[in-house]
Amino acid sequence: MKKNLFILFFSVLIISGCKTYERGADGKTYERITVQIPCDKCNATGHLSDTCLHCNGNTKVQGPCNACGGQKIVQVLTPQGPRVIACQKCQGQGWLIYPCPHCDGTGKMICAVCRGRGTVDEIKRIPVEENSR
User: Fold this and answer.
1) Structural domain boundaries, residue 26
2) Number of domains in the chain
């Protein structure tokens, strides 16, 4: 009975504090740890050598001004009442130049495997002696 409870207890993932244990097909208990390894797809750079399709490698894109929403004007309150003036942030142009959000301003495509981190998670299983936990 005691052995059956032990097997049942460890046949599913068990999380104890920060440690995760699992029962292997061989009947042994393993601790699961996640390690970060360099991404093979991008050589750990986080970006591919391909030119970004959104900014054509220029690293910047033009977009609507986030202060006036591209309207070129903003309404301000003055002691005389509300007034409409040219947007100060974009100097009344209605647009600004931003770092490309698709390549984070690098001009190269972000690696889809590591999502620009340069590393990927790999799960390792380390055998655990039953008496060591």
Assistant:
1) 1-39+119-133
2) 1
Assess contact for 49 and 111: CB atoms under 8 A. Answer: no
Tokens in use for 71?
């309207």
Residue 54 lies in a domain: no
Q: What is the pLDDT of residue 1?
A: 43
Domain assignment present for 23 = yes
Query: In the Cβ-directed half-sphere of 50, how many Cα atoms lie within 13 Å?
Result: 12
83-111 tens-digit pLDDT: 999 999 999 999 999 999 888 888 989 89
Is 45 a member of any domain?
no
Q: What band does 119 get if pLDDT is binned at 50, 70 and 90?
A: very high
The strand order across the sheet containing 14-16 reads 14-16, 19-23, 29-38, 119-127
CA-to-CA separations, 131 to 10, 11, 29, in angstroms, rounded: 14, 18, 11
Whether 27 is in a domain gets the answer yes
User: In this predicted structure, what is the pLDDT of residue 10?
Assistant: 43
